[in-house]
Here is the input.
Amino acid sequence: MTEVLAAMGLAERAVREAMARVLPEDLSGRDALVRPSEHADFQSNVGLALAKEAGRPPRDLAEALRSELAAGPFAADVSGPGFLNLRLADRLLWAQVTARLAAPRLGVGLPLAGSRTVIDYSAPNIAKEMHVGHLRTTVIGDSLVRVLSFLGGEVVRQNHLGDWGTQFGMLIQYLDEHPEAGWHGRAEQGDAAAQVALLDTLYRAARKEFERDQDFVERARGRVVALQSGDEATTGAWRELVAVSTAAFQQLYDRLGVLLTEADSAGESTYNHLLDEVAEELLHSGAAVESDGALCVFFEDVTGPDGAPVPLIVRKKDGGYGYAATDLATLRHRVRELRADRILYVVDARQSLHFKMVFATARRAGWLPAGVEAVHVPFGTVMGPGGTPFKTREGGTVRLAELLDAAVAAAHRAVADKPHELSEAELDDVARAAGIGAVKYADLSTSRTKNYVFDIDQMVSLQGNTGVYLQYAHARLRTLLGKAQAVDPAPEVDPGLPLEPAERALILQLEGFGQVLREVADEAEPHRLAGYLFALAKALTEFYGSCPVLKADTPARRANRLALCRLTADTLAQGLDLLGLRAPERM
Ligand code: ARG
Here is the structure.
């Protein structure tokens, strides 16, 4: 493995080595408490933290560590009540740049090697169009898949499609009774997306009829029974609904550039044959009890407004299973069959009580052993322009495909307005990368649990914390590197050159890449990576401001700066890829 230990790791190692020489054995293995610092590259508070136990004044302890460190590649001093400030030698920072450029994967290690994570994300519902509510789960889940895999983890993608339930009996009945609605014999009418749009409309019509016509309710119930008991014609109709919807979802996934394929689909119906067994096991283990004819799980800490316990209903009074039973069977399957040691559920924050109860039930039943972690990864809501939940003028949900169209059009205008040398075809391609990227980035850069307002103009802005801004920063670097290539094809880094402050700041920022990816993986928070990339682009702007590259005053300085530009471009491109954004070479 060719991991390049990051600057902060080097600082930690140096402080630990000094601790081993200065402190008694029982204290020398403690955390070195190294953090990035404004006063130096890094600061350690270990002098303060361990002074008491070491039986010496903090400044004194810090001073002893400092004098040990003086022999190494860090310049150290002590400030305040006993802070240890560390500054890495210029030579060593240049060496880091060289090593990262030469290493595969920018020298980032594989800390997740040997782990196996199931990620549950996207999960739209069959016979309905994907709407803005599915955007967050889809892009956050996709980024987590990418980051965990990049860090060496094994990742199993699971698309828990909403493909089962009494609503399908109702819809199939309605479609049969209304040949004039155009569902049957629609074969030549447009693509999957258009067909799902039609289904979405018919579904709503079916609901209306269901609400108003008692006879239809009866016939729909009959269809539900037919579907559940495997009636040939009914399951055939259902399979068709699933196929059309899945094809339409796939079109959107491809357009969004997310990694999901049909092979990742394991819809709710996948678990139907396990539900009886799951209920049985829950009853036997005592995790669930019969209550009022239903099979329920009760929790001490889950009560309604009246203080009465609110159960998780595994099986309804009428014998039917719902969302909860399916999720229990799914979880059991993910641990037993898929051998997950971590399961991430990227699902709307409004479902947190559901997951709390499902996880607690699974623990009780012994399906979630101690070494396995099940985590609900909740996210906030996408709001409309007024800061209220996003709805169409008619009060309906907003179709995702339409939003993407609008974003690509806006990005096209924004890119075309800037001076550029792109052909028409290149411009179209860049607009797609920028428009789709803008939507994804706006979502991913928002602190995961916060709501955000969907504002296309702001999303495609070339200024500020946007995907387009980062893509431009990357493309500008590639253009610069292309020009340099012509003059100086193989620049080599001279580690003996002193660092300018802006160069130093940029290198230190680049050195933080692996650390931020580990944080994204641990906390399941891609917005940390977005924030990192934005800070990197800002450090790059500072660098441009004070350090001419092509016009550097000596060839050696130009070579060093070109290396720095190349590492920055590669890091931006890699980071954007891990967010699921494209990084065009030219814009
Ligand atoms: N289909 C569900 C919805 O649209 C989301 C499913 C999430 N995953 C799960 N295992 N429950 O709300």
Notes: The domain at 404-579 is CATH 1.10.730.10 (Isoleucyl-tRNA Synthetase; Domain 1). Residues 120, 123, 125, 160, 162, 327, 330, 345, 347 surround arginine (CB under 6 Å). The first helix runs from residue 7 to 22.
